[in-house]
C-alpha cells in the first residue's frame, strides 16, 4: 500500500467486503460511489442522490457545450445519459 510518505507495510482490511450494486453489465462499489459523491449527497440527501442515480438524460448536440454538459452530468452522478449528434460530414463542432 502506498501513501504520500511512500510505501507502508500495512495491508488494507479485506475482512469486510464492500456492498456492490449491479446495473446491467456493470458492478458498482457503493462505498466508492458514496466517497466520490459526498458533496452532492450532503446537498441532496439520500433520496435525492438515489433519484439522481436513477435519472435518464438525453443530450441533443454533442458539440462544445453538449460534451461539457455530458461530462458534468456524469461527474455529478446521473445514472444514464444518451447523447445524440447529427454530423452531416462536419467535425468542426465536436469537442476534441
UniProtKB/TrEMBL annotation:
Instruction: Establish whether keyword Chaperone is in the entry.
Output: no
Name this protein carries in UniProt: THIF-type NAD/FAD binding fold domain-containing protein
The record lists the lineage as: Eukaryota, Fungi, Dikarya, Basidiomycota, Pucciniomycotina
Q: Which GO terms describe its molecular function?
A: ubiquitin-like modifier activating enzyme activity
The source organism is Puccinia graminis f. sp. tritici (strain CRL 75-36-700-3 / race SCCL)
Stretches with biased composition (Polar residues)? 1-15
Stretches the record annotates as Disordered:
1-26
Every THIF-type NAD/FAD binding fold domain range: 39-82
**Keyword Transcription regulation attributed:** no
Mind telling me which InterPro entries this protein's record contains? ThiF/MoeB/HesA, ThiF_NAD_FAD-bd, Ubiquitin-activating_enz
Ranges annotated as spanning the membrane: 55-78
Q: Which domain of life is it from?
A: Eukaryota
Keyword list (alphabetical) reads: Membrane, Transmembrane, Transmembrane helix
